[in-house]
Design a protein that fits this description.
alpha+beta, five-stranded mixed sheet, 4 domains, Beta-Lactamase
Length: about 425
């Protein structure tokens, strides 16, 4: 059976103490008694030789004990330092860090190694609290050994009343912890507060950097989709103008030239041609009005988002309640984004959710502008299936303004979609 680490430590200490007593006695015999015999003083010990022996013992005692401990460790087959040597070394590295001190994360790995070596455990881990979740920050050895039936001991690391993490060690089945190992685990947990605090700060910064990277990638993808959408709309507009309004206007020009030619030769026919052009002009105006309506509503340009939304609500057959706290005019791009966001949300509620009533709320909250569309439709589970082009367009419009879009819905309980834009982007239009 493997000798328990604490028992081995006790045996080593006892041997060192006995060897120290023998060494002191030997020094006294050799210097005081042997030296006295040489100088002819045998009746009583020489005071000078006694002082010399005492000085030699005082100066050489600790180096002798240290060298003896090192020698015994090798002779007894010990592959680890004394538990309190481990604690002392770890504490000194915290109190007086070297110029090439490793980072906090490296210190956590060193802590796990000190813990495993000092206690003689099969393995040691340092768990770190990041946010509300515990993460394994370091393991020693890096590859966990196979389970050998030993127990697991844990010790929380607390600094100023805050739980920063936990130390976990796996005992060897043939060498369970004794009082020394248990005390070492407690002492290392008490000393590890600052190390885990620094490591947690680094982990939180790394997580925030990752989140910012993901957000930047999502914003870049959103802007790419927005550009693609604009290109599609531009090509559609070009096609509609060419096939619609342009054809009407070309035909109008041809007929007007025909009427001009017939004015002197056949006045009656010229008047008939001109009369027919009234309907052609009305058709061209209607076509251009349809195109303009699809691009940017006149009410939004002239009066702002509140009146424009009331106009949309008035054209809808179902019950829609609009609450507007008199926000006033906003920047042109903000008004357009919020308007088309609301129109898309209303169309989704009417066409896809079978809603019977909808509530639209437009308000300013602190340093933000908030537009909410809530319906009582059949609802759905967000994240299930393809979100659809309409929802992606809504996201893209709001993302382009550095805003936020949130969606909440449950089957049978309707849906609520909210767009929030920073007021700095929604400054009053001049």
């Amino acid at each position: 059976m493997t000798v328990r680490p604490w028992a081995q430590e006790r045996r080593t200490t006892l041997l060192i103490d006995l060897a120290t007593l023998l060494a002191v006695a030997l020094v006294y015999v050799v210097i005081v008694l042997g030296g006295g015999a040489l100088v002819g003083s045998t009746d009583s010990p020489s005071v000078g030789l006694s002082v010399l022996a005492t000085a030699l013992v005082a100066l050489g005692l600790e180096p002798f004990r240290s060298a003896l401990r090192t020698w015994l460790a090798g002779r007894l087959g010990r592959d680890r330092r004394s538990p309190y040597d481990v604690l002392s070394g770890f504490t000194e590295s915290l109190a007086d860090p070297a110029a090439d001190e490793p980072s906090s994360l490296d210190m956590v790995t060193r802590l796990a190694r000190h813990l495993a070596v000092g206690t003689g455990a099969s393995w040691a881990q340092v768990w770190l609290m990041v946010g509300d979740a515990a993460e394994c920050a370091a393991t020693w050895p890096p590859e966990l050994p196979a389970e050998d039936g030993g127990g697991v001991r844990t010790r929380d690391v607390v600094l100023d009343g805050e739980h920063l993490g936990t130390l976990r060690v796996g005992e060897r089945a043939d060498a369970p912890f004794g009082p020394i190992e248990q005390r070492l685990l407690a002492d290392l947990a008490a000393q590890a507060g600052m190390v885990l605090h620094r490591a947690r700060l680094r982990a939180e910064l790394a997580r925030r950097a990752t989140d910012l990277t993901v957000q930047a990638e999502e914003l870049q993808e959103s802007r790419r989709r927005l550009v693609d959408t604009h290109d599609v709309e531009r090509r559609r507009l070009e096609r509609d103008i060419h096939d619609g309004a342009q054809q009407h206007l070309v035909a109008l020009v041809v007929n007007l030239r025909l009427a001009q030619t017939l004015a002197t030769k056949a006045p009656d026919r010229s008047r008939a041609v001109l009369t027919d052009q009234v309907a052609a002009v009305d058709a061209a105006i209607a076509t251009l009005a349809d195109l303009a309506h699809g691009l940017y509503p006149r009410t939004l340009v002239e009066s702002g988002i509140g009146p424009a939304l009331r106009e949309v609500v008035g054209r809808t057959s179902i019950s829609i309640t609009l609450t507007d706290d008199g926000l006033g005019r906003l920047a042109v791009d903000v008004e357009a984004a919020l308007y088309f966001f609301a129109v898309e949300a209303l169309q989704n509620a009417v066409k896809h959710a079978d809603a019977s009533s909808i509530e639209v709320t437009l308000a300013s909250e602190g340093d933000e502008v908030r537009l909410e569309v809530r319906d009582d439709g059949r609802g759905f589970r967000p994240g299930d299936g393809d979100p659809g082009r309409g929802l992606r367009n809504m996201h893209d419009r709001i993302d382009a303004l550095q805003g936020r879009l949130t969606l909440a819905s449950k089957p049978g309980q309707g849906a609520t979609v909210v767009a929030t834009v920073p007021l700095s982007r929604a400054e009053v239009a001049s």
